[in-house]
Amino acid sequence: MAINSARSSVFGGRVAALAGGVGGAKLAHGLAQLLTPEQLTIIVNTGDDFEHLGLTICPDIDTVLYNLAEVNNPAFGWGRADESFHVLEETKRLGHDAWFMLGDKDIALHLLRRAMLDAGMTLTEVIYELARRLGVTHPVLPMSDQPVRTMIRTPEGEMPFQEYFVHRRTKPVMLGMRLAGLAEARPTAQVRAALDEADAVIFCPSNPFVSIGPILALPGVRERIARIPTLVISPIIGGRALKGPAAKMMQEQGLEVSALGVARHYAGLVDGFVLDNVDAGLADAVRALGVTPFVTNAIMRDRADRRRLAVEALGFVKRLTGAAGAK
Ligand code: FO1
Q1: Distance 21 CA to ligand 1 centre (A)
Q2: In a domain, 83, yes or no
Q3: Which of 32, 118, 279, 305 has the fewest Cβ atoms nearer than 10 Å?
Q4: CA 100 to ligand 1: nearest atom
């Protein structure tokens, strides 16, 4: 079929994409336009998940699902398009401090997730079912079925990630982070299989600490990735994060706030690193880390940008998989 041949001409192998946050979901959507569901699996961070008003909120998974289903809110980057907030408004009227903006359509999905989890389904099974109902055909996998919760250490004490990120608008200084539940967590069988069968891994332009970090922290994940040609799309462009607190976190942890700082963070694990044109001057320093640089326009403003960056990333993957056989 025309679509399939157009897809497979970009890259014929299998890709496991690691994602979290809005940037990650954008590239996952671009990749899904080019690769078949057999070729692309998206492994998603669950460290941002939390319990709120009796609901299990999975922001990174939902952002990927909504983007792949093309029902995402383009202004916020998370949540649903054409959303209303009647339930939220009513909870406010009833005295709830409604700092986390759950829209009505989003709440509908959360109610179904609550019911499925309460019926004993694993998170992987729930997300498979919700994806199917949203018309998403590419596998979207929670990194683990056991809860892992990112806790941010601040001078005010430790706080859950969403408290830090949304309620406190990332204002407290981040001294460090802890992944609560990590000791009991395992990557799911589906995640392990996706990594074992992948010809390449792509780290989407996601926060290296709170989005990609929790996935890499699961037992066996780093070891698997170390065997596979892996490329990173820098989430830092021109010394700034396009969205979210990655730059602030790097600065507060004494790291160089640049794409090079991100490349250093991943050096030894990854083979390729995609830099934006404005960071072309960092390419030699990235190469000196033993990581192959690739310079392009890494900003995704619209749907066409997502596809274009995915085409370029897959072209780069093709070259790396040719070159990185000895990894
Ligand atoms: N981010 C915000 O900045 N404010 C919100 O009120 C908010 C609500 C929200 C509801 C559902 C959802 O899936 C995501 C939501 N997000 C919100 C985004 C989310 O908390 C973050 O983007 C991610 O956790 C960062 O990766």
Answers
A1: 9
A2: yes
A3: 118
A4: 6
Residue 159 lies in a domain: no
Q: CB of 208 closer than 6 A to ligand 1?
A: no
Q: Is residue 219 part of a domain?
A: yes
Longest dimension (CA), the chain: 62
CATH number for the domain including 116?
A: 3.40.50.10680
Question: Ligand 1: which of 166, 204, 249 to mutate, most ligand atoms within 8 Å of CB?
Answer: 166
Q: Which atom of ligand 1 is nearest to the CA of 63?
A: 13
- Predicted local confidence at residue 5, as pLDDT: 45
Residue 173: inside a domain? no
Q: Which of 48, 61, 71, 78 to mutate to test the pocket of ligand 1 (most atoms within 8 A of CB)?
A: 78
Question: Is residue 49 within 6 Å of ligand 1 at its C-beta?
Answer: no
pLDDT in tens, the chain (327 residues): 344 444 556 899 999 999 999 999 999 999 999 999 999 999 999 999 999 999 999 999 999 999 999 999 999 999 999 999 999 999 999 999 999 999 999 999 999 999 999 999 999 999 999 999 999 999 999 999 999 999 999 999 999 999 999 999 999 999 999 999 999 999 999 999 999 999 999 999 999 999 999 999 999 999 999 999 999 999 999 999 988 899 999 999 899 999 999 999 999 999 999 999 999 999 999 999 999 999 999 999 999 999 999 999 999 999 988 865 444
Residue nearest to atom 2 of ligand 1 (CA): 166
From the CA of 46, how far away is ligand 1's center (Å)?
13
How far is CA 207 from its chain centroid?
Answer: 8
Is the distance from the beta carbon of residue 6 to the nearest atom of ligand 1 less than 6 Å?
Answer: no
- Count of domains for the chain: 1
